[in-house]
């Protein structure tokens, strides 16, 4: 991990004028902070809370941490370190848990970045679309943290050190699919009609590459026809995704992201599941 890059905020993770003096510095405690600030869109029933429809439609469209923090301020004036009742939380997705944790880690001195891929611990036999935070531990090693499952989920591992075979980065799932070890039809949203398959895995490969280069997209962002639901893939699409999945270094990820087939343009389409397709202009990097 390039320490300078992953310690530096991006336009997406930048917390703005957030006063970090009251925040803990230890990653585990920061994950607990995040878990007390966000409720996942699908968790209302688990917590006995009826999520207002408006929040389901709009909260998770917040592309930037500054927007997440603004919404949290509107819903309560308690310190960020104080766990909130569900009604005072931001209603988001796994990407929002991961982005906010990444932001707070960076702000308090721990190098971190987002990873897009697939989790095997939500539905048996399924590679579920998921995002986590990768951070540098005090011993210098890299760890995967899942703030969404930090408490309240029965997982057989430490959420601050998710095993690499429990959460797989998108490139590893792509390689497994291409080699016939994983059925692409088991990759995507287990509850989403048609939101599965090799085209879906490719989309996550490109989103993971973008995140590694400081462009931390929404899960439904796209910028070419092959990122639409069920789009057929060309030989060029397959070869480009093969190259990304094989890359293992900062230099390789930067070089690949400079390829017009793999980079994210300033103008994209957000295929929002709740608000429909929308054209979006991203910030200059």
TrEMBL record:
Pfam families: Transglut_core. InterPro entries: Papain-like_cys_pep_sf, Transglutaminase-like. Residues 91-141 form the Transglutaminase-like domain. Residues 1-25 are annotated as: Disordered. This is Transglutaminase-like domain-containing protein. It comes from Streptomyces variegatus. The lineage of its organism: Bacteria, Bacillati, Actinomycetota, Actinomycetes, Kitasatosporales.
């Amino acid at each position: 991990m390039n320490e300078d890059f992953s310690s530096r905020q991006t336009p997406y993770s930048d917390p703005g004028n957030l006063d970090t003096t009251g925040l803990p510095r230890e990653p585990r405690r920061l994950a607990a902070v995040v878990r007390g600030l966000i409720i996942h869109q699908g968790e209302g029933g688990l917590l006995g809370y009826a999520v207002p429809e408006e929040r389901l439609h709009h909260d998770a469209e917040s592309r930037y941490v500054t927007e997440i923090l603004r919404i949290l301020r509107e819903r309560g004036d308690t310190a960020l370190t104080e766990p909130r009742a569900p009604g005072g939380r931001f209603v988001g997705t796994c990407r929002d848990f991961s982005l906010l944790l990444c932001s707070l880690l960076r702000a308090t001195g721990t190098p971190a970045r987002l990873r897009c891929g697939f989790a095997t611990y939500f539905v048996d036999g399924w590679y579920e679309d998921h995002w986590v935070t990768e951070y540098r531990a005090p011993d210098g090693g890299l760890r995967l943290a899942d703030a969404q499952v930090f408490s309240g989920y029965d997982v057989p591992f430490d959420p601050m050190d998710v095993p690499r075979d429990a959460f797989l980065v998108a490139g590893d799932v792509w390689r497994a699919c291409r080699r016939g070890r994983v059925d692409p039809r088991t990759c995507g949203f287990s509850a989403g009609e048609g939101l599965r398959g090799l085209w879906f895995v490719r989309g996550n490969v490109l989103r993971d590459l973008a995140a590694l280069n400081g462009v931390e997209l929404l899960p439904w962002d796209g910028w070419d026809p092959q990122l639409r639901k069920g789009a057929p893939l060309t030989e060029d699409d397959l070869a480009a995704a093969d190259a990304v999945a094989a890359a293992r270094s900062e230099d390789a990820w930067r070089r690949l992201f400079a390829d017009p087939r793999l980079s994210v343009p300033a103008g994209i389409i957000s295929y929002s599941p709740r608000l429909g397709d929308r054209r979006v202009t991203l910030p200059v990097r």
